């Protein structure tokens, strides 16, 4: 710990020392050539349609990250993790045991939702993912953009607009906008080969060594087209990522006494499960009784009393009463388990879940091209294709559970969720000048799809006839956007820029059904259960569940193919009244085919109080249309909730059940935002300060409700529950209003002396989101008890406290000749676990009693050396001191499987990552 504090302190002193040196250097007589300051300012195009300007002169806060340069030395290699490391206002971490979300990391800006930040590529709207985040993670109920579908090696830089901009860019831009600027390099082939992994004592389920190995190859090539500035640039990236294992040691009961008897019979060639299909109607019950009597005697660790009870039970029902788990304490069941594990040559770790990052193979191709067709006009195109195959683990199916058919799986099994994620995008357009007007006409198409292949699993109701792999169906989202934009500068006052344009957007959301065995429940005859036919059971009489375990396939009734359209028009006028006063006004009208229209506006200004001191402020209204996914998504899946596994139906907003419960139709979220800040430069010290405070009020925010249990809803709704075969239901609804307040501070410094280049950057984000006002319940769900389900305590934590309210980073890059050193310390503030547990140990669980997960500092260190102008090597460590989140209290660990929280978003639970990267260009 002292070493950690020493490095952090040294980092701070280094920054402050250089700052002091820069302040005093004007009064020190030095050789004029010995110190050079960087006078080139970063310019931004995001947040204004008037063209590029320095970011300190922008009326709204914009961060600029040069990915092309930093990719050589940064430990992170994908866009989400790069931004999580360098941008305090941005949060994204790898999720675990949350179905498809394991392969797509939800990203948030300024503490708002993943669906409240708009992503652009080369200034054009990027399509969102097909995935709906329905499990217990930050961003639950939202649909975000799949940043992992774009190779970071294809990027020149990333711009992050930290201000509401729906009046300028349309739906989703409530928290801000991220623009990914693609490379335009020509005349060389550049590439890098990276290898790394997690070197940590917690690897391989806390046995140590090395896991999470990651191999990545990135290639980029560009060349000129013609002699008038045309070019093409193409990037290929392949990643092969192994899983990490962060479970503890399974501590719960695994085997019961019946499992032990069953195994002894199996060793003798007798499969007890083959002797019955429904234990209540089997004609050979006496044979089963006799076998149990016979093989129970071979279980050496049964007490004499238990042996006597077994031998004295002469019917199936009597044996069920003797052997059922409810007859034994947890300690007794764990004793049986330990003895049986020893008998079978197993250990408890054999029954661990796969907790940690998922296995992932990712291949990406991206192209950016531009060709002049005349002196004033050029055509352009960009886009890409990616295919990502991921495998993540579910909850272990133990032999003692009725969802495990021990006739096939006497030791249980760990089911796996496989996803094939395809992403396609293509934009094409023409832009140029005509009589002083800048004109840009473009069409942008994008499609993202998830296909689920469930592996190492079974449909328990099919018993011996069950396959072990299922096509569970999939999701697909498509979007096509047509834009026509005009802008022109007028030589009035210090300049006026007028911009206007129009947009048409088409969206389609499709759910494809899975194969029948992935969702159906079968009867004893092997036919689909009709609700009345006899179902197969386990030995204790519990009906065997249908569908593929861990992820039920999409049913024919879930299949949808829905589309909608929207049209929009906007105007944006920027007035430079004087060289010290700039005012920008924007307005946008948008109409959606499925819920109506919205009108939004924005006013922003920058006042130059002094040559190097600016004050800026902005106010705007905004909106986010309900995603088409949120309107039509519906499925039944297995969720782990309150330490139970339940079949939970997510019903679309227009479903029969939603009507029975009087759930209101979805409508747009609306927002009001305000920000005020300043920028200050000290050119003599090469220092830049920016600080911005912000406030965002969102009304009718869409969330995914908690689970309405059958016993809690009216009788008419209970009948619908029975008809649909579910235990609980949840819905998307405009449930709440929220307010978010925060402050962003950024300090940048650079200095050049004696061939040494030093860049120092400090940034901090403080934010707080809270639900305000009443919950917008309706109809049959207006009782106070049901309102707690409508917007539950867990949902409140996901919204308000699962993401750090304070996040800061302090980084230094030191370059000298062919060597570069990089040091970054990132502070992640405390978060709150969503589980409601007895934290203080007083035996009383309050409705809002949660575990606090402490703040941590993560240190990254890397060094790069350029052997020749063509070849270089980088060695580095992410999370140098192997810091982990606060450990879960026992009640949240699911029998010591989740050592760390899986319902928060800080910095992940993989520990120290070491890597080597070979860089080359020719």
Structural Rg: 30 Å
Structural class: mainly beta
Query: What share of residues is helical?
Result: 10-25%
* Largest beta-sheet characterization: 22 strands, antiparallel, barrel
Distance between the termini: 44 Å
Number of E-type strands:
37
User: What fraction of residues sit in β-strands?
Assistant: 35-45%
Sum up the overall morphology in one term. Answer: globular
Unreliable sequence segments? 1-41
Q: Compute the number of helices.
A: 16
Mean pLDDT: 89
What does this structure look like?
The chain is mainly beta and 922 residues long. Strand 22 and strand 23 (613-624) form a beta hairpin. Helices cover 15% and strands 42% of the residues. It has 16 helices and 37 strands. The chain has a 22-stranded antiparallel β-barrel. It has a five-stranded mixed sheet with strand order 4-9-10-7-8. The protein has a two-stranded antiparallel sheet with strand order 2-3.
Briefly say what this structure is.
The chain has 922 residues and is mainly β.
List the helices and strands and how they pair.
Blueprint: H1 2-24, E1 35-36, E2 43-44, E3 53-54, E4 62-65, H2 67-70, H3 79-86, E5 90-92, E6 107-109, E7 117-121, E8 124-125, E9 155-161, H4 166-169, E10 176-182, E11 188-199, H5 203-206, E12 210-225, E13 230-241, H6 257-267, H7 285-296, H8 304-312, H9 316-323, H10 330-344, E14 359-372, E15 377-393, E16 416-434, E17 437-455, E18 470-490, E19 496-512, H11 516-519, E20 560-576, E21 581-592, E22 596-610, E23 613-624, H12 628-632, E24 635-641, E25 644-651, H13 656-660, E26 669-682, E27 687-704, E28 708-709, H14 715-724, E29 728-753, E30 756-772, H15 784-790, H16 793-800, E31 806-816, E32 819-828, E33 831-832, E34 852-853, E35 856-866, E36 871-878, E37 913-921
Helix pairs in contact: 6-7
């Amino acid at each position: 710990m002292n070493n950690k504090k020493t490095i952090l302190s040294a980092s701070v002193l280094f920054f402050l020392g250089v700052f002091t040196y820069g302040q005093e250097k004007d009064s020190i007589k030095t050789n004029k050539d010995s110190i050079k300051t960087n006078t080139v300012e970063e310019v931004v195009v995001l947040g204004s349609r008037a063209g590029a300007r320095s970011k300190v002169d922008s009326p709204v806060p914009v961060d600029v990250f040069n990915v092309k340069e930093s990719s050589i030395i940064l430990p992170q290699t994908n866009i989400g993790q790069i931004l999580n490391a360098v941008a305090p206002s941005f949060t994204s971490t790898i999720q675990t045991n949350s179905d498809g979300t394991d392969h797509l990391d939800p990203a948030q800006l300024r503490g708002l939702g993943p669906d409240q930040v708009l992503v652009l590529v080369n200034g054009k709207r990027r399509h969102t993912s097909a995935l709906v985040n329905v499990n217990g993670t930050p961003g639950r109920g939202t649909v975000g953009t799949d940043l992992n579908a774009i190779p970071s090696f294809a990027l020149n830089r990333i711009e992050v607009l930290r201000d509401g901009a729906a009046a300028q860019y349309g739906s989703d831009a409530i928290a801000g906008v991220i623009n990914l600027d693609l490379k335009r390099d020509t005349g060389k082939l550049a590439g890098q080969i990276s290898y790394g992994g997690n070197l940590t004592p917690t690897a391989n389920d806390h046995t140590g060594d090395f896991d999470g190995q990651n191999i990545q190859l990135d290639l980029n090539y560009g060349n000129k087209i013609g002699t008038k500035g045309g070019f093409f640039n193409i990037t290929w990236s392949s990643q092969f990522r192994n899983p990490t294992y962060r479970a503890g040691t399974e501590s719960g009961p695994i085997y019961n006494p019946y499992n032990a008897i069953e195994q002894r019979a199996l060793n003798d060639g007798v499969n007890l499960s083959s002797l019955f299909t429904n234990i209540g109607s089997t004609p050979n019950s006496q044979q089963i009784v006799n076998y149990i009597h016979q093989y129970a005697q071979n279980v050496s660790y049964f007490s004499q009393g238990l042996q006597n009870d077994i031998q004295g039970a002469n019917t199936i029902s009597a044996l069920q009463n003797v052997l059922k788990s409810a007859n034994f304490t947890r300690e007794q069941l764990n004793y049986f388990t330990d003895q049986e594990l020893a008998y079978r040559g197993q250990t408890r770790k054999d029954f661990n879940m796969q907790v940690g990052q998922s296995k992932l193979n990712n291949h990406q191709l991206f192209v950016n091209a531009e060709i002049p067709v005349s002196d004033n006009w050029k055509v352009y195109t960009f886009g890409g294709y990616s295919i990502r195959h991921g495998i993540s683990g579910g909850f272990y199916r133990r032999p003692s559970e009725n969802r495990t058919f021990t006739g096939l799986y006497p030791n249980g099994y760990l089911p796996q969720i496989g996803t094939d994620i395809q992403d396609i995008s293509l934009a094409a357009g023409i832009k140029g000048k005509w009589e002083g007007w800048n004109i840009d006409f473009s069409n942008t198409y994008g499609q993202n799809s998830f296909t689920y292949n469930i592996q190492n699993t079974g449909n328990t109701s099919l018993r011996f006839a069950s396959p072990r792999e299922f096509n569970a169906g999939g999701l697909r989202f498509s979007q096509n956007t047509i834009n026509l934009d005009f802008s022109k500068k007028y030589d009035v006052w210090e300049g006026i820029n007028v911009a206007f344009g129009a947009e048409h957007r088409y969206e389609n959301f499709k759910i494809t059904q899975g194969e029948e065995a992935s969702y159906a429940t079968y009867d004893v005859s092997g036919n689909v259960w009709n609700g009345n036919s006899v179902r197969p059971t386990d030995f204790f009489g519990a009906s065997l569940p249908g569908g593929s375990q861990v992820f039920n396939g999409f049913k024919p009734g879930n299949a949808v193919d829905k589309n909608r359209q929207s049209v929009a028009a906007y105007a944006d006028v920027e007035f430079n009244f004087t060289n010290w006063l700039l005012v920008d006004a924007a307005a946008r009208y948008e109409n959606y085919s499925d819920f109506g229209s919205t009108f939004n506006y924005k006013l922003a200004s920058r006042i130059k109080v002094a040559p190097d001191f600016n004050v800026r402020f902005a106010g705007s209204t905004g909106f986010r249309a309900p995603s088409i996914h949120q309107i039509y998504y519906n499925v039944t899946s297995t969720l782990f909730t309150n330490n139970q596994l339940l079949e939970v139906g997510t019903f679309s907003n227009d479903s029969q059940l939603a009507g029975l419960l009087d759930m209101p139709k979805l409508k747009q979220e609306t927002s009001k935002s305000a920000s005020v800040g300043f920028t200050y430069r000290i050119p003599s010290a090469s220092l830049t300060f920016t600080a911005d405070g912000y406030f965002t009020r969102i009304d009718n925010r869409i969330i995914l409700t908690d689970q309405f249990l059958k016993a809690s809803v009216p009788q008419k709704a209970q009948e619908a529950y029975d008809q649909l075969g579910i235990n609980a239901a949840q819905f998307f609804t405009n449930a709440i209003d929220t307010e978010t307040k925060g402050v962003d501070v950024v300090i940048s410094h650079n200095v050049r002396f004696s061939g040494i280049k030093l860049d120092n950057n400090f940034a901090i984000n403080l934010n707080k989101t809270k639900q305000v006002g009443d919950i917008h319940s309706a109809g049959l769900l207006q009782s106070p008890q049901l309102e707690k389900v409508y917007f539950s305590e867990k949902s409140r934590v996901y919204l308000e406290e699962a993401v750090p309210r304070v996040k800061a980073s302090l980084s230094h890059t030191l370059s000298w000749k062919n060597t570069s050193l990089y040091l970054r310390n990132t502070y992640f503030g405390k978060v709150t676990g969503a589980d409601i547990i007895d934290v203080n140990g007083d035996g009383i669980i309050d409705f809002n009693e949660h575990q606090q997960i402490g703040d941590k500092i993560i240190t990254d260190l890397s060094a790069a050396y350029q052997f020749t102008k063509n070849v270089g090597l980088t060695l580095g460590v992410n999370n140098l001191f192997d810091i982990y989140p606060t450990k879960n209290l026992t009640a949240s660990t699911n029998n010591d499987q989740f050592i760390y929280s899986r319902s928060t978003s800080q910095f992940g639970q993989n520990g120290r990552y070491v890597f080597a990267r070979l860089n080359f260009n020719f």
